[in-house]
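Example 9 (inverse folding). The structure is encoded as follows.
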């Protein structure tokens, strides 16, 4: 995100914040019925890579992948995902690049509660935001690293900022404008705590389809430990 865009974002977020509370149903539900998670979590160990111009996708993904113990720099990821014509990275390219590092990109279900549950389990969440308007979107990838229920704040690594906070209501608004898209990146021995069997196994199938059969085998076995009767996991393990 360049300097001009950054100032535009600041102005837009200020205006969005004024009306966010009135149009944030998930936030109201979350505060009325808080999940059984710690009151505050911050994953301070998540690496931070300041974003180069238009490199928010590679920078954020590098932070998540390095957190999982695989050393990679944003420039290396940019070679895999950055589309010059778009001055950015597509979600499908982000998912494909994650698999190249032997990790499973598991898409979450679009609920704020799921984000908090993942953070409480020690899983940073890779999110897409629209920091502008539906008609004039400004797409931006960030890493969600924590929350504070009392202060009603999300904590993120974003752009050139190692740590920023955004209210639950405003985060919900900008996340909703990006289709509630969120990934948790895990190894083949781990399942995100909020993931459904279908979401996890879709990630495993994707890994198998790109030829990472041994990783897929481990992941199918992991799935069967949680869902021992799941026919897709049983068939997948047998076929692989």
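The amino acid assigned to each position is listed next.
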């Amino acid at each position: 995100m360049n300097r001009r865009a950054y100032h535009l974002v600041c102005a837009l977020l200020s205006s969005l914040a004024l009306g966010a509370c009135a149009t944030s149903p998930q936030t109201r539900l979350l505060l009325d019925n808080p999940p059984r998670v710690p009151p505050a979590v911050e994953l301070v160990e998540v690496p931070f890579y300041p974003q180069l111009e238009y490199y928010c996708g590679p920078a954020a993904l590098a932070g998540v992948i390095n957190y999982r113990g695989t050393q990679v720099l944003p420039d290396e990821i940019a070679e895999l995902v950055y589309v010059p014509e778009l001055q950015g990275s597509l979600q499908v390219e982000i998912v494909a690049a994650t698999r190249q590092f032997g990790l499973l990109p598991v898409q979450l279900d679009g609920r704020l509660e799921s984000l908090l549950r993942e953070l409480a389990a020690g899983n940073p969440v890779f999110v897409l935001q629209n920091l502008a308007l539906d008609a004039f979107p400004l797409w931006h990838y960030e890493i969600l690293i924590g929350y504070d229920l009392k202060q009603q704040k999300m904590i993120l690594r974003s752009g050139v900022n190692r740590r920023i906070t955004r209210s639950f209501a405003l985060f919900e608004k900008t996340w909703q404008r990006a289709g509630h898209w969120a990934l948790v990146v895990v190894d083949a021995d781990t399942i995100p705590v909020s993931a459904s069997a279908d979401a996890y196994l879709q990630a495993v199938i994707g890994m198998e389809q790109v030829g990472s059969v041994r990783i897929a085998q481990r992941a199918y076995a992991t799935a069967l430990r949680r869902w021992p009767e799941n026919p897709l996991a049983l068939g997948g393990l047998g076929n692989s």
